[in-house]
Amino acid sequence: MLQLKEVITDEDVLAKALKEKIVNHTATVGVIGLGYVGLPLAVEKGKVGFKVIGFDINAQRVGRVNAGDNYIGDVKDAEFQELVQKGMLTATTEFERLPECDVIVICVPTPLTVTRDPDISYIESATNDIAQRIRPGQLVTLESTTYPGTTQEVILPLLEKSGLKVGKDFFLAFSPERVDPGNKRFTTKNTSKVCGGVTPICLEIAYTFYAQTIINVVPVSSPAAAEITKVFENTYRAVNIALVNELMLLCDRMGLDIWEVVEAAGTKPFGIQTFWPGPGVGGHCIPIDPFYLTWKAREYDFHTRFIELAGEINIEASYHVIDKVNRALNAENKSMKDAKILVLGVAYKNDIDDVRESPALKVMELLRKDGANITYHDAFIPVIEPHGGSTVHMDSVELTDQALAAADCVLILTAHSSVDYDRVVEKAQVVVDTRNATKDVQNNREKIVKI
Ligand code: SAJ
C-alpha cells in the first residue's frame, strides 16, 4: 500500500496555504450534489468546524436543507439542524458562489443510459460549473462512482481550460464514496476512504482534507487506481450475489433449500462471505457500477465476462420469481390471469426508503404483463411514481388482515424488519417469500413457498 509522502514545500505557496486552511478548519467546503453521499459528507465536515456550502440543482432540496428539514436517513436530524441553525451548513442553487469554496467535492449521480452505457453528464455538468469559476488555491475531488480514467481524461482537461495548472494552481483527486445506505455500524466517519491525486501534491492535500473527518484514509498511486478500486468493490458484490442466485436456480431444479445451503456454507469460519439469493439486485450502485468497468474495458479490447454473466443471472433471478408465483397459484388451481397479488416490500433493500432500480419494480411489471392485479404494501415507500422500472403510479395499501386474506398470493420482495410475518402467513392464502423473511414463522408453514 502506498505510504503518503509529504511533498509540499514553502515554494508551493498555494498548496501550503490551502493545506493550512484545511488543517485549521478555516477552509470553506463546497459539496455539489446533496444526496445520500453529499449530505452526510457535508454534515461530517460541518461537525468539525468547516463552513460548508451545499450546491444542488434541485431548489426544493436546497430549500429543505436551509430549513433544517433532513431528508437523508443516514443523517442525524439534531446534528443537521444544529449546523443549519449555526450557519455552518447552508445550501444554494447559485453555482456562482463556487469561488467562495477552498475545497469542492463532487457527489453527483452516475447512472447508465438506456443502452446501459455510462452517463457521466452530471459529472461533466458539475465540472463545467467549476471550470467556469475555478480560481487558484482550490482543491476539487470527485466522489461519484465512475469508470477508471474519468478524473484524468474528462475532469482534468475541463478544469485546465481555465489556464490554471493542476498540482500548482489547483488540486484534483478522486476519492470514492463508500456509503452503505441504512448501515448503522459503518458511517461516513468510520468507513476507510481510498484517495488518489493527479499529482503528489494533489494527493497530500486531498488526503489531509479527508483525514480531518475520516478515521482511515488510504492513499493510492493515481485517481484511476482509486476509481477502479471502487468499481471492483461493487463488482465483487454483484458477482457474488449472482453466484448465490445461480445456485438458487439450480437448487430449485434439484428440490434443495438454497437458504439452508447458504447458511450451512456460512458456518465455515474462513474463506467465505455470505451473500443471499433474492429477486434480483437494486439500488444505484450494484446493478450499475460494474457496467462502467465493462464499458471502459472495451477500449482495451477486454471483455469482462464475469460482470456480464453476473448481470444476466441477477436479472434472471427476477424472472424466476414469476415462475415461482405461477407455480404457487397453480398449486391452488389458480392462474396468473386476474390473480390478486399483494407485494410486500418494494424498496431495493430492507429497512430503507429507496426504490431506485429496485427489482420489485421489474417483478411487478412482469406480473402485470401476465395479467395479474398487483397491489403493494411498503411503509417506507408510500407511493411509486412512473419512472425507470415502473409504468404506473401506485400507492402503498394498508397491510390489513382483509388485504392479506383477499390476495390469491402474497409476494415478499423486500424483508423490512418492521413487518409481523407471523400475521402475514396466518392471514394469507399463500406466501411466496423471495427473502426468507418468514424463516422464524412457526405456524402455517405449508402456506410458504421460498425461492
Ligand atoms: N442483495 C442481495 N443479496 C445480498 C446482498 C444484497 O440480493 O447478499 C441485493 C440487495 O437486496 C439490493 C442489492 O443487492 O437490492 C444491493 O444491495 P447492497 O447492500 O449490496 O448495495 P447498496 O447499493 O445499498 O450499497 C452498496 C454498499 N453495500 C455494501 O458494501 C454492503 C457498497 O457496495 C457501496 O458503498 C454502495 O453500494 C455504493 O454506494 O456504491
What does this structure look like?
The chain is of the alpha/beta class and 451 residues long. The chain folds into 2 domains: 13-221, Rossmann fold (3-Layer(aba) Sandwich); 237-450, 3-Layer(aba) Sandwich (Rossmann fold). It has 14 helices and 15 strands. The strands form 3 sheets. The protein has an 8-stranded mixed sheet with strand order 3-2-1-4-5-6-7-8, with helices on both faces. Helix 1 runs parallel beside helix 7 and helix 11 (305-331) crosses helix 12 (359-369). Ligand SAJ binds at residues 145, 177-181, 233-234, 237, 241, 275-276, 278, 281-283, 285-286, 348-349.
How big a fraction of the residues is strand?
Answer: 5-15%
- What number is the mean pLDDT? 96
CATH topology of the largest domain: Rossmann fold
CATH class membership of the largest domain: Alpha Beta
Largest sheet: 8 strands, mixed
State Rg. 24 Å
Order of helices and strands: HEHEHHEEHEHEEHEHHHHEHEEEHEHEE
Bound molecules: ligand SAJ
Number of strands: 15
CATH superfamily of the largest domain: NAD(P)-binding Rossmann-like Domain
Number of helices: 14
In spatial order, strands of the major sheet run 3-2-1-4-5-6-7-8
Helix content: 25-40%
Total domains, how many? 2
What is the CATH architecture annotation of the largest domain?
3-Layer(aba) Sandwich
- Anisotropy-based shape: elongated
Return the structural class.
alpha/beta
